[in-house]
Specification:
The structure is a single chain. The protein is α/β, with parallel strands linked by helices and 753 residues long. It contains 28 helices and 27 strands. The strands form nine sheets. A six-stranded mixed beta sheet has the order 5-12-13-3-14-15, with helices on both faces. A six-stranded mixed beta sheet has the order 19-24-25-18-26-27, sandwiched between helices. It has a three-stranded antiparallel beta sheet with strand order 2-1-4, covered by helices on one side. Strand 26 and strand 27 form a beta hairpin. Helix 12 runs antiparallel to helix 13, helix 22 runs antiparallel to helix 23 and helix 23 packs across helix 24. The longest helix is centred in the first third of the chain and has 19 residues. It binds adenosine-5'-diphosphate (2 copies) and zinc ion (2 copies). The site of one zinc ion has 7 residues, from loops. It comes from Actinomadura rubteroloni. Keywords: ATP-binding, Cytoplasm, DNA damage, DNA excision, DNA repair, DNA-binding, Excision nuclease, Nucleotide-binding, Repeat.
């Protein structure tokens, strides 16, 4: 839709934007239109859309709070831009997971459960009272046993002990209880047990004393010590503690030893007996929460009652939107913690579809992540609907299907990092095609089938897979080739791949999940590059390598070598500001006088990978940097905090590390996330190289270029949730495209033309 002349004044005007790599960029964005931002990863799309436009909008909104409230908020730094005119309130819909709250579910996050509670408080039989009587977050409604969590934690005894051994033989496998240790002596020398008897031969009394006896003082050899059964002891020592601050081996123990089981009292529904007993047409609110949303929509449509008609209409609209957005396979009781990034983004989006706000700027980060080509059409409709309600919609996206519906395109580039940051094209899609930019040239580009598929060297059998929605799936995954697992969102791809392939011994999973402790980590620390770099500096200057590490006396005492200061606030995302002491240079002035080929350590950490690769021409550092280049991270700076990397970049970083490990099987989940059409070719070459080196590669993907490039497809479906969970096709892409028997087949055939 061309901008109507009468609307021509209605533009957001950006003047002189210099955030991150942007090169003094100025542009006008039409309001109430759909603008798609394109460009290779690292070209500066996020720096413009999120770092400049959305950040300034948020800052302006924060400024409207009273000085008193502002004193509790992080003082957000003004983005580096000369002027931003005509900005409206921006709502960012990104792929950040929704909070780390175990009490948040799809139902609570969308308000659908809140509406359902009111319906049950009015129409449920017998009447139980107010809507809070149906809330698992209030004492009125929560299950007393699990306190509204739906599950209870328990300790798996067999993970604490080896029953075939005696105490002297090392039967206790809990960290800190090694034979001879203090904790071990308290038990073995308590006088309660024969320390040479295998646990398997213990009497019931001995067994109970070993595991459950409450704390008591005992006198042993004249000493008084406190004996306590292993289970209460482990609970006190390891459970109530913050898992994230534990040492890795303790964390591994806790993850292994604590099992979560569905609460037996409420059956996982989180609700107390009264709330569970009220029914409408024989269906309880707990039944509703468990149902697949597409089924729930049918049930709610069948309820008729004039007294709550407006509420029912609102609930129907909300459930309808969830189905429309491709989330009909979820249930309201699904914890938001378990949603993927793409699912989280779509759940957040639903809240805005029913909103009557207009003139809002909606900002999306790759809304098609996790969507099958079949689902993308629906997503497109929703983006257009937001626009048609009078909003400005800004979308960062790589998929041609979305670029094609744009009213306006902003193409950034030409390259990444310091080679990017410029506007290469603005205008409509036809103009983009004709522009000759990298994006324009790739828009109609079609990757084809491979000339000859590779032959599997063997098969990995999966039998009777029934996790989540999988319907007793039997499938063989070929070894030594590139397999792509396809299917609509919710069909069961992740359940199959993560549940039955990823836990095998030789498997490396490179996913998009956050890296722990990532604030202090950066690509240099995370990949082990810092070691050889420190050694090179030490050798060149005749000093100790430790001087160049972030936790040494050489590091800036104020920021501990991070170069940034983080301010954490309870309810808000933390903010980072450049350290004033070292001005972001990370090290003390003394350390910065040591140089290697004219660069100090701070300058090296500030280099993009590509530049560092040329700088360190040989050796271990060069090898690590080569792998980072191979996975398309040439534009990332060595010292950039991992928290600033996107999910796709994190995944490629993990892949780069694991490539050195000589794994046999690689499992990747949507590795094209964040990749430009031009970068996808490079990814395909990388996957081919892994296979040609003798590895098995299994990829979950929706990108048709990757699907076409596979040796073998495993297509799951036909639909999502209980309409999916079956293998609908296995074989080569060529055979599927020739006789398209599935949704994936139809799209593949159309793509190949
Ligand atoms: P895109 O969204 O196109 O992938 P970005 O805007 O994320 O690109 O990145 C543009 C450049 O800015 C890249 O070189 C990237 O490494 C850098 N960059 C992004 N975020 C930060 C940050 N928080 N601090 C420093 N550099 C950053
Ligand atoms: P895909 O990867 O194809 O999008 P998934 O394997 O994520 O599909 O989901 C398949 C089904 O399993 C869906 O109905 C989904 O809601 C359900 N499911 C997935 N993960 C979980 C989970 N952690 N808890 C409960 N149900 C889940
Ligand atoms: Zn319970
Ligand atoms: Zn500092």
């Amino acid at each position: 839709m061309p901008v109507h002349p009468a609307d021509a004044h209605a533009t957001i005007q950006v003047r002189g934007a210099r955030q991150n790599n942007l090169r003094n960029v100025s542009l006008d964005l039409p309001k109430r239109r759909l603008t798609v931002f394109t460009g290779v990863s690292g070209s500066g799309k996020s720096s413009l859309v999120f770092g400049t436009i959305a950040a300034e909008s948020r800052r302006l909104i924060d400024e409207t709070y009273t000085a008193f409230l502002q004193s509790f908020m992080p003082s957000t730094a003004r983005p580096d831009v000369d002027e931003l005119r005509n900005l409206s309130a921006a709502i960012v819909l990104d792929q950040e997971r929704m909070g780390a709250n175990a009490r948040s579910t799809v139902g609570t996050a969308t308000d659908a459960f809140t509406m359902l509670r009111i319906v049950y408080s009015r129409l449920g039989e017998p009447h139980v009272g107010t809507s809070s009587a149906f809330s698992f977050n209030t004492p009125d409604g929560m299950c007393p046993r699990c306190e509204g969590l739906g599950e209870v934690s328990d300790i798996a005894v067999d993970r604490l002990l080896d029953r075939t051994l005696s105490l002297n033989g090392g039967a206790i496998t809990v960290p800190g209880f090694a034979v001879g240790s203090w904790y071990w002596r308290v038990i073995a020398e308590s006088g309660l047990f024969d320390a040479d008897k295998p646990l398997a031969d213990y009497t019931d009394g001995e067994w109970d004393a070993l595991l459950h006896r409450p704390a008591e003082k005992r006198k042993v050899d004249g000493h008084t010590l406190t004996y306590e059964g292993l289970i209460p002891k482990v609970r006190r020592t390891y459970l109530g503690k913050d898992r994230d601050t534990m040492k890795p081996h303790l964390r591994a123990f806790v993850d292994h030893a604590v099992v979560f089981a569905t609460c037996s009292e409420c059956g996982g529904s989180r609700l107390n007996a009264a709330a569970r007993s009220a029914v409408i047409g024989g269906v309880s609110i707990a039944d509703c929460a468990r149902m697949q949303i597409s089924d729930l929509a049918g049930f709610v449509a069948s309820i008729e009652d004039a007294s709550v008609a407006p509420l029912l209409a609102g609930l129907r609209e909300l459930l309808g939107a969830l189905v429309e957005i491709g989330l009909g396979y979820l249930s309201l009781d699904r914890p938001t913690l378990t949603l993927s990034g793409g699912e989280s983004q779509r759940v957040k989006m639903v809240r805005h579809l029913g909103s009557s706000l207009t003139d809002v700027t909606y900002v999306f980060d790759e809304p098609t992540v996790g969507l099958h080509p079949h689902d993308i059409r629906r997503m497109n409709d929703l983006l257009l609907r937001l626009r048609d309600k009078g909003n400005t919609v800004l979308v960062v996206e790589h998929k041609p299907e979305v670029i094609e519906i744009a009213d306006h395109v902003v193409d950034l580039g030409p390259g990444a990092g310091t080679d990017g940051g410029e506007i290469c094209f603005t205008g409509d899609v036809a103009g983009l095609r004709a522009s000759g930019t990298l994006t324009g040239r790739h828009l109609g580009h079609r990757a084809g089938l491979r000339a000859a598929v590779r032959e599997p060297r063997g098969w990995i059998p999966i039998r009777g897979a029934d996790r989540h929605n999988l319907q007793k799936v039997d499938v063989d995954v070929p070894e030594g080739v590139l397999t792509v697992v396809t299917g609509v969102a919710g069909s069961g791809k992740s359940s199959l791949v993560h549940g039955y392939l990823a836990d095998r011994e030789d498997v490396v999973v490179a996913d998009q999940s956050p890296v722990r402790g990532s604030r202090r980590s950066n690509p240099a620390t995370y990949t082990g590059l810092l070691g050889p770099v420190r050694n090179a500096f030490a050798k060149a200057n005749g000093v100790k390598p430790a001087l160049f590490s972030a936790n040494s006396e050489g590091a800036c005492p104020e920021c501990n070598g991070i170069g940034l200061i983080y301010t954490d606030l309870a309810m808000m995302a933390g903010v980072a500001t450049v350290c004033e002491t070292c001005e972001g240079r990370r090290f003390t002035a003394k350390v910065l006088t040591y140089t290697l080929d004219g660069k100090n350590i701070g300058e090296v950490l500030d280099m993009p990978v590509r530049e560092a690769h040329a700088f360190f021409g040989t050796g271990q550092a060069h090898a690590i940097l080569s792998r980072l280049l191979d996975v398309g991270l040439g534009y990332v700076r060595l010292g950039q905090p991992l928290t600033t990397l996107s999910g796709g970049e994190r995944q490629r970083l993990k892949l780069a590390i694991h490539m050195a490990e000589k794994a046999r099987t690689y499992v990747l989940d949507e590795p094209t996330t964040g990749l430009h059409l031009a970068d996808v070719d490079q990814l395909l070459a990388l996957l081919d190289r892994l296979v040609d080196d003798g590895n098995t590669v299994v990829v979950i993907e929706h990108h048709l270029a990757v699907i076409a490039h596979a040796d073998w497809l495993v297509d799951i479906g036909p639909g999502g949730g209980h309409d999916g969970g079956r293998v609908v096709y296995t074989g080569t892409p060529a055979r599927l495209a020739a006789a398209p028997s599935t949704l994936t087949g139809e799209h593949l055939a159309a793509y190949l033309g």
